[in-house]
Amino acid sequence: MTDSPELDDRQMLPDDVQQQLLEVAHRRSLARGDSLFLKGSAPDALSGVLSGSLRVSVVASGGREAVIAILRPGHWFGEVSLLIGRERVYDTCALETTEMAVVLAEDFHRLVAERSDVHMALTRLVCMRLRQALAWIDDAILMPLPVRLAHRLLTLDPRPPRAIGAILLDESQEDLAFMLGVSRQSVNRQLKMWEEDGTLRVGYRHIELLDRERLVACTECTA
To answer: What are phi and psi of 36, to 5 degrees?
Structure first.
């Protein structure tokens, strides 16, 4: 995955492990814009998305936000902070009305200690995410800007992968440039090219995505 795209099915826990977690979890509802937790908060629970979606991000010292991932139903997260006993390193915010399953720390540690299948499933999950992080680093170095920018715009689209129709993305060219580590002029040139071929429309501090499939096709280019 490049530039923090949506997490895939390989990063979901097995159904039987999810069921064990759900049996000890309590439910929490989030309205659009609500935070589940913020960077620096205590690692007090493992969380799973039951419905809706969450935006995972970090904020730089200048106040700009970089999106790490969009989490959809079936994704569990927070296991690393619990396992190492360290504070959270990112923010989470609901993109829409979202239902969460929350497993408190004591229940999480009990399951890990008592159930080898849960322990192994979480170990595999952590390994998959490490592999993904290394892939992000490789892509940031090797992939051309159009591919990285296309991935970023797709990440900002909260809809399911095969969604059709237009959607407005509330992201400025300055923020996109910051996230990708390039100049605003470079981002603007590529956006203008996509605007000319009908892929999107550039507005003031927003981008209207018109043709998702063209961006998906761009992410498959490697040169």
So the answer is: -85, -45
